Every structure is written in C-alpha cells, then in structure tokens.
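Lab notebook, page 48
Experiment: co-folding of the full assembly
Goal: obtain a model of how the components sit together before planning crosslinking
Operator: M.T.
Materials (sequences as entered):
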Amino acid sequence: MIELIAQNPFIASLVALVGLGLVFGALLGFAAVKFKTEGDPIADQIESLLPQTQCGQCGYPGCRPYAAAIADGDDINKCPPGGEATIAALADLLGVEAKPLDAAEAAVPSVAFIREDECIGCTKCIQACPVDAILGSAKHMHTVIASECTGCDLCVEPCPVDCIDMRPIETNLQTWHWDKPKPVEDLIASDRGTAAKSGAAA
Amino acid sequence: MRKIWDIHGGIHPAENKSQSLHKPIENAGIPKQLILPLAQHIGAPASPIVNVGDRVLKGQMIAEAKGFVSAPVHAPTSGIVSAIESRVIPHPSGMSASCIVIDTDGADEWIAHRGTDDYTTLSKLELVDLIRQAGIAGMGGAGFPSAVKLSTRDDKPIETLILNGTECEPYITADDILMRERAEEIIAGAKILRHIIKPNKETLIGVEDNKPEGIAALEKAAEGTGIEIVTFPTKYPSGGEKQLIQILTGKEVPTGGLPSDVGIVCQNIGTATAIYRAIQFGEPLISRITTVTGDACEQPQNYETLLGTPVQYLLDKSGFKKDACIRLIMGGPMMGYTLQDTAVPIVKTSNCVLAPTVAELPPPPPAQACIRCGMCAEACPVSLLPQQMYWFSRAQEHEKLEDHKLFDCIECGACSFACPSNIPLVQYYRASKAEIRQAQQDKMKAERSKERFEARTARLEQEEAEKEAKRAARMEAAKAKAAAAANAPDSSKADIIQAAIERSKAKKAESADPAQAAIARAQAKRDGNAEEESPQEKTERLQKLFASAEKRLTAAKEKLALAQEQQSDNADAFATAVSKTEEKLAAIQQELTEHRASLTPPPADATSADPAQAAIARALAKRAGTTADESKEDKTARLKNTVSTTEKRLAAAQEKLALAQEQNDANVAAFATGVEKTQAKLDTAKKELSDHLATLAPSDTAKQIASDDPVQAAIERAKAAREAQASMSDADKVKQNIESLENRIARTKEKLDAARAEGSDTADILADSLAKLEAKLAAAQQQLS
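Observation: model returned without errors.
Model output:
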C-alpha cells in the first residue's frame, strides 16, 4: 500500500483530495438539509428595526415586504417614519453606508383624527387602515383608536368627505422629557469671553 | 456611637441654609384661590368627586385615588369649587394639567373629622388605609404614595425603619425647621410607622451634622422611645434614599430594586409628621412646610403652606424682588427646576421655592470640551462613569448607556457640579433616559402594530379564502344549473328523440307484425306441404332407424340360431320375428333410398318460402314508407311544435341570462351565447316553418315542380318568401331587414373577433364585409326613418 502510494504520488494525492472533497461535500449537504433555517433571519432582523407603521411609503405593502426587499439588496433609506435613526440602525446591521433619507423629510409622528360630525360612515377608512385602528360601521360614525394608530396616512386618501386629519402627536406630561443640551461648539480660548457674554445674555 | 458608612463621591456645595432659619415657621394663611393639581404624586392622577360650584369644607376629599399607586386630594380650606380645568402645574415642562380650583371663603371650616384614640389597637391594614385616605405622598420630593410604600409584604421582613431628615440640598430648610419646632410630632409619626412596619431590628432617624438644633430637639423627643437619631457628616447627596440607606446600614439597594429588597423602609420626616396628624387627628394632608428663600427674597423663611397656594402668594409674603431674581426655582439648586410661571401652586412635593439673584446662582458658563479629567466619576455617588455616559449619550448609543447603568443615575447633579468644563452632564442623562424609554415604547408599539397588522392580514386572507370558496361553490352551482339548463332542452330533445324512436319502434313492431304474421302464414302454408323436419334431419332419422333395425335383426338372428341350437320351442317364433324385422329393415331402407332420391333434385321448399319473403319485403317496404314520407300536415304540425318549444326555451334562456346579470355571475357570457344560439335555432325553425307553409300554400304544380327540381324549389321558396313578405307593410319589411342585418353584423363581429384573436387571414375580409353590412344597415335605417 505504502509502496503503491510512494510509486504513484500524483494519483494517490488526487484520490485523497477527491475523497476528502466527496466526504466533506456529503457532510455539508447533509448539514444543509438537517439544519435548514426556516424563513429569512436577515429579513427578520431588519423587520425588527422598522417602525411597523405599515404605511407603504417605501413602496412596499408593509414593513415585512420592505424588510425582505432590503434583505434582497434594496436601499435602506426609504422609510420616512423611521427617519435617520432607522437608517443608521439598518446601516449598522447590514454593514453598509448610511444614506440620506429618500424623502422630503422624515415623517412627524402623528395620529389620525376623524372629525366625527362630518363622517358619513362609509367605512372606506376602516378598510384602508393596516392595523385596524379605526372603529365604526356602515352609516355610523367612525373614530380612531389613537393608541393603536401608526400615523401611516393611508386612511386620509380614501375618505370621500375629507374628514380625516393627521394631527402631530402632542407632548403631554407623560410623554414630555428633557431635551438634550444643544451640542457644544468646541470653543477656543479667545472665544471664551464672547461666548460667556452671549450665554449670560441668554 | 454606632458605625456609619460612607457613600462614594459626593460634593460639598455652599449650604446657604441659614438665611431661611432666622424665623420660625409662619402660617402662610389662606390665599384667595387654591389650585389643586390632580396629580401631585407619582402614579395615576386622582379623579375629581366634586363638581364646579360645590362648597367644600376643609379636609373634604375632592378627588379620589384611581388605582393602587395613587393618592386622593383634599380641600385645604373651605370654599367653592370654581373650576376643574387645566392649569399650569409645577413641572419642569411648564405644562398644564387638570386641577381643581377652589375659591376660598376664609371661614376655614373643617369637615367633621376624628382621630384615632389609640392607634396601637388598629391593625396594619387599617392604619395603612387611613394613611391612604389621608392622601399622604412622600414629601421629600418624589411624591411616592406613602400607603404603597408601607404596604410591605410579609415575605420580605423589614429590619430597619429609617426616617430621612438629611435634607442635603442647599438652601432647603423645611425639614430642619420641622425638626427644630415639631420634633415631638416627628417622633410620634415615627412610632406609628414603627407600629405599622414592625422593623425587627431598629428605627433610625438619619440627620446630617449641619443641623445641630434639629438633632438636639429630636434626641430630646426621642428619649426612651428606642428611636435612634444617627448623625453623619454633611455631604451632598446623602439625602437620597439609597444613599442614606447605604450610609446608615452599609447596604446597597440593588439595581432596579427597592429598599424593601434589603429589609429597609425609608420615609421622610415630613411624611412622618403628616402620618401622625392623619392618625392622631384625622387630618388629611392639606398643608406642608415650604421654604421660600434666595437673595431675591427680602424675608426668606419657612411657611406652613396650604397645598394649592400659588407660588406668587408666597413670594409676595416674602418680599420677592422680581428684578433681582435671575430665575425662579422649584426645589433646590441642584435638582430643582425653573418655574416659568409664578401662578403655579405649591403641591405635596414642593419643599422649596428658590429665588436667587444673578450673583448667587450665575448662569452656567458655556460648556467646553470634555477633558476626560474623571472628576465627575469621582463625584458620582452611584459609582457610575459619567464621562463615558456623556459620550454615549451624545452618540445616542443607547445599548452602551444601559450597559453603563444609566438608569441607576439619581440625577443628583454632582457630576455637573464637579465638571471643570461646565458640561451639563445631568441634562444629557435625563434626555438619554427619555430617549431610551421612548425607544422602548416605540418598540412596544411597533410590536403591537405588527401584531395587529399580521392579525388583519390573516383575517383578510381568511375572508378572501372564504369568499373564494363561496364563489367556487356558487360557480359550481351555476355550472350545474347551466348544465341542467343545457341538459333540460337536451333531455327534452332526447326525450323527443326517444319518444320518436319508441314511436317508430312501435310502428315498426306494428308493421313488423304483419310481416311476421305473413312469414308465419307462409310457413304454415309450407308446413301443409312439407314435413316439419328438414330433409337433412329426415335422412339422419331414417339412417338411425335403419341402423337400429339392422341391430335388432342381428340380435333376432342370433336368438334364432341359439334357439335352433337348443331345439327350443320358440325357434319358430324367433324365425318369424327375424323375418318381420328383416321386412321392417327393408322398408326403412327403401324409405331411406326414396328420401335420398328426393334430396337430389332442387328442394321443392323454395317455392313455398318465396311468398313469405315477399311478404316480409312488402312489410319492410311499407314501414320504410311510413317513416320516410310524412304527410304535409304532419310536417306542419311538427315544425310548429319545434318553433313553439324553441320559443319557450329562448324565453327561459333569456330569463336565466337576466338573473345571471343581476347576480354578476361569471357565466353571463355563457348564458348570453346560449340565448344567441337558441335565437338562431328559433330563426331557422321559423324559416323552415314559413318555407313549408309557403310550399303548402301555392298550387300543387309548384309543389310538384319543387319536388322535381332543387333550383326550381329554391326559386319557389324565394317566391314564397316574397309573397309572405308582400303581405307585410314596407316599414315592417325594412325592420325585418334591419333586424337580419343586425344579426348578421353581430355574427360577423364575433367571427371577426375570433379571427383577430387567432390572427387569421380572414380577419381583413371579415372586416370588409362587416363594413359593407354596416353600410347596408345604415341605409336601411335611413330608409326606415
């Protein structure tokens, strides 16, 4: 045996390598079948970063489809409700460059409000709401469950009497919080006097 | 001297406490209006139980607690509820919240109230409930409902009860003066608390050593009670609950835990006094001691203030110089917040109103870059790394902030105080805490939105599936119906055909019967002449007969020989038998030969069979004649019948089509084609009928000609049609013309569409012919109009 190998080193190595390749290929193939991952873990992670407003402003019918699209290589800057924070988080997750938001401006968190006197009870907004946050039935007044509203705007368009407003969420005592101090301009020694004066004046 | 511990870090800001201690507690009196926020405590806001216009008495509950972590609100004096509305409340945001506004009447009339003679007879639950009903919330600054804090669980035994008389924040002397003047009440409250909590080790009152008078008064009052007054070096922020616990017991309250987790309950001495008054006299929490101080006040001093008293009222009493004041602070200089509005009321947690001058509390110089000196970390009483958290906060690295235990920060401001670069570190932490909480809430909301979205999607899918199933079922039903509809005429047709077949069969049978009868008759006739058996059979029979006769002859001969041998008497008889058998045999043989001879010539039967065959042929011919050639009358009847049935079917088909259109059935098109086809059939049937009638109407010659020559027949038909048309008016003719044209156009269009769909070459031709037809139609319509 050893002699045979010694005499045919080329063939012996070829056989050995091919044999190894076959063995590991079989192992890998088995593992791929045995330990198959259900679903798309990347898409799941991306989806967990999206704001779940289900507004469709990205051009996809909901956050999950957009997550899947990002996983397939779509841009990460199409989510106005998420804003810069979401883009940064996505860039961090995917290891890509953060891009500026692909929209005029980040969406202001808002909530739909139905002017109930004007509502004719057409149920069109109910059908449009992606999270079932509008209550009402045919020919009866509708109203928005504000705590469940994602502020996606989708109910505004279908309303035939334009009685739905998107109202920015107002801060109340529960949601109020201290603002972060304005970023400090790094001062040099010669600025100190004027800055102190302007600070005092303020 | 008991052992005391030290806390990490801490600072020593200027105390500035003496200014407000020159005068004793002064009753601030009753302002014209009291503003009582419904949320003066941590937890759910109370809910009003009075209406606008109601007269309320001093101590009357005007808003009840909502939920476990909540506290009721009482009227601090008698008066009329003038409003329940949003007012600016003492809050760093400067926002408004709902308040009960009482216009006081100055009578200060108490509601009937009664204290407990001997609280020791009451159970813990009863006492805690009394405290809850009295609306007592932590008066040190946080405002946590005391009843909740005192509702300790039995499985967590309390070792130590601590009363907090530290008051470490500069300027504030409310607790100090309370100790000096009302030490007995504090001790009495401590005893009640001790009775409720039943600490199994000790009851301590922690006081910083910068309040010697207070300490002396407390010690005097506490003599013989077992309550220990513990003094320790002054340092900010020793007064924090967790810091005080660490100083007095050396125990650290774990992250996210409560003092009860380490066997300790801590209460402010002001709270203890309030509890004493609530238990002893039945007085709810309606007033507190508030320090009004700062160089912008001429007479800084402590006031016994009714809750709801506007800050402006207190400032007016203290000689407040608005111009000198740089900013009005609620609370101390370290942890207090700026008041934007002096109309805000004093609430249960308001221990100090600070009105400093510019010189006293200059605005912070502009922040500079962090030089990583680490002084903040040295100052931090919770042993955090403030500068690290500062960077993380600026970079919004929330996870790292949480890793660095941002939420253990007590926001004491020691780091900001220590920072040589004047960085407002605490503001960063406060903002970051809010951001993280907001992010968590957003996350939760996103989760909920996702759930709702998924639930909705699932529901819609299910609805769609159900609808689809229903649609499929309906389509199936419609198909079955259509099939039945298609089959019904078919079956009726089949029935008609079947009936026709049966009729013709019956007829055939009838007509066959004569044939059969004829055959039978013919056969009977033949039977008369010839025997039943066929010649072959006869030959066979004769041969068999001959063979058996031969056998019998042989046997008889043998018997005769035997008898002759034995000389039997019967020999003669045997001889006769043999001769007889021989005769018979001969006869048979003759017959056989005769029969064979008769077989050789052509059978005489053929002639006898011929009439039968002829009869059959005749019968068959007759039958054929009846089926092939129906009479004229019969044909007319049949055609009329066909027209009427087709009309009926058309009506039914149209009805179905209408129904289908009404229900938006998918088979509308199918029904429409059905109607069209039926219409076409009806047309052809009518035409046939009219043709037939036309052929009937004219003279027999025409009929004869028609039957003679197909061309002539067509001409005749056309003539007949013309004659039929001649009976109509011109307009009717045109109308008919238009109708037929329309029909043809429709058909051509269909064909054209089909041709186009198939890309056939005939499309152009069809289009051409369609155009021509349309032109004709237009002309006809013009003619009609």
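Interpretation: Confidence is low (pLDDT under 50) at residues 602-609, 699-707 of chain B.
Next step: discuss with group before ordering constructs.
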